[in-house]
Structures are given as structure tokens and as C-alpha cells.
Amino acid sequence: MKTFFLLLTAFSLSAGVASAQTQPAQRPGGRMAQTTPEQRAEMMTKRLTQQLSLTAEQTEKVRQLALQETQQLEAVRAKYAGANDRKGMGQELKALKAQNDTQLQQILTAEQFSKYGQLQADRQEQRKARMGNRRTAGDL
């Protein structure tokens, strides 16, 4: 009987180790990191089209701008990959965002751009709340 329990314990431990090794490795950044710039641009275009009621012409211009933006973001992230310069990367990303917002403002109406600004502020608050929850859970 002891042998049976010993074998059962050994098997269950080895099964746990084996199943842990079969889990696919996730890239940092979650599900968005697993998408291409084109896919991210398409998702952004769809979201803005729905939220801001864009015309067909606006939708096409936003799609082009979103693709350009995601490719630029990818280039900045690649430039700073492995580097320990978060401040430099943050400044470059902030400048890129300001540039893209200026271009977006030329595409949207004043009302749409105002709503866009509010949506961005709401998303920022959601990100802060998620980050706060992560830190709180990790402190336990």
C-alpha cells in the first residue's frame, strides 16, 4: 500500500511538471503584443468608427493614420528593446502621440475630436485602475 501511495504521489508531481512545460509562452504585453501592426490598426479603426460615427472618408483616413501610428510605435519599441531607458522611450512615445493626435484632429470634426479626447481620458483611467489593482494584489 505504501508503494502505491508513493507511486501515486510521484506520478501526480511529474504530471504537474509536464503540464507546466506544455503551456505556450506568452509575449510580454498580453494579447495586444501578439497582434500585427495591421491588426491593431484595424481594431483601432473599427473602435473609432463605432464610437465616433465616422463617415466612410474619415474611416479610410483614420485607417491610414492608425496603420502609420502602429508601425511607428513598433519601431520605437524595437529601438528601446533591451535598453533600460524607459524615460527616453516614454518621451518619444508621448511626442508620437501628440503628432498623431494633431493629424487626427484634422480628420475629425470638433465634436468628434472632443469625444475622442474624453474616450482617451476614460481609457487612461481604466489603465490606471488596472495597474493599481495589480500592485495591490501583488502586495498581499
From TrEMBL:
Keywords: Signal. Residues 1-20 form the signal peptide. Residues 118-140 are annotated as: Disordered. This is Periplasmic heavy metal sensor. It comes from Hymenobacter aquaticus. The lineage of its organism: Bacteria, Pseudomonadati, Bacteroidota, Cytophagia, Cytophagales.
